[in-house]
Specification:
This protein is mainly α and 190 residues long. The protein has 5 helices and 2 strands, in the order H-H-H-E-E-H-H. The protein has helices spanning 17-39, 46-77, 88-118, 139-174, 178-181; strands at residues 124-125, 129-130. The N and C termini lie close together (11 Å). The structure holds protoporphyrin IX containing FE (2 copies). One protoporphyrin IX containing FE is lined by residues 15, 23, 26-27, 30, 74, 80, 83, 94, 98, 101-102, 105, 160, 163-164, 167-168, 178-179, 181-182.
């Protein structure tokens, strides 16, 4: 899939495989976690609502694990070579967006964990284990954590929209290798 017509001066053509795999598992887990919690709104039956929320918590915790693993990997890989030549402002914008995405990927699930703990409802991980409560039951703290969780989640979704739009802009308008650098290497044609 590598383009021989690329006008770029030998940029890094691909991100490391583990970064790419974690990136796309994160996308899938996020879609599922959000679908579960919104799908729950359409359900009346109590047992099903509980199941959907428990699954939301499990996928949310998976996202927390992925976020932490990605952050460690990213620090370890720093600095990554540029994929495309970009103006300084665009580079700064991309770095700020990526930094904020990492931050929210960790802060949103931690607020969810805090929310569950302060409501006295421990967070389990796919029935395999249950996390310890971060705090004792506390309605006020629960309300605050709920606000932060919700606001953080919408901020994360908005930022992802922006981020995905930027990736598509690179691919279809600028026609550089930025999106390809994050795609799995399904090559190679003879
Ligand atoms: C990146 C990960 C996560 C995202 C994007 C996310 C997103 C959301 C969203 C959009 C809502 C609905 C907000 C609303 O309409 O009020 C929500 C609710 C909730 N989330 Fe998360 N969440 C994540 C992780 C977690 C985790 C790890 C936990 C717990 C361990 C959790 C527990 C909850 C709870 C208890 C609710 C409230 C459900 C309700 O009472 O209606 N979330 N989450
Ligand atoms: C759950 C949704 C997403 C999250 C949380 C997310 C997060 C991130 C983060 C944190 C990075 C920076 C990686 C690094 O260099 O450390 C990144 C890179 C990238 N993402 Fe996403 N992303 C998401 C969805 C998408 C989607 C839907 C697309 C494509 C349409 C996309 C395309 C890219 C590309 C092309 C890069 C490489 C940018 C570069 O190296 O300059 N991402 N993503």
């Amino acid at each position: 899939m590598t383009s021989s017509a690329s006008p770029l001066p030998e940029p890094a053509s691909r991100r490391p495989a583990l970064l790419v795999v974690f990136h796309w598992i994160t996308v899938l887990a996020l879609v599922v976690a959000v679908t579960l919690v919104f799908g729950r709104e359409a359900v009346d039956e109590k047992a099903l609502r509980t199941l959907l929320l428990n699954l939301h918590k499990s996928f949310g915790l998976l996202l927390l694990g992925l976020g932490l693993a990605r952050l460690v990997l990213r620090v370890f890989l720093h600095p990554l070579p540029a994929v495309a030549e970009l103006p300084a402002l665009a580079r700064l914008g991309a770095a700020a967006t990526h930094g904020l995405l990492y931050l929210l990927l960790i802060a949103v699930p931690v607020c969810g964990w805090l929310l569950a703990s302060s409501h006295g409802k421990p967070a389990g991980f796919f029935g395999l284990f249950t996390l310890p409560n971060l705090v004792d039951m506390d309605e006020d703290l629960g309300d605050l954590a709920s606000e932060l969780h919700e606001t953080g989640a919408y901020l994360l979704l908005g930022l992802i929209g922006l981020h995905a739009a930027a990736a598509l802009h690179h691919h279809f308008i600028l026609k550089d290798g930025v999106l390809r650098s994050m795609l799995p290497a399904l090559r190679r044609r003879p």
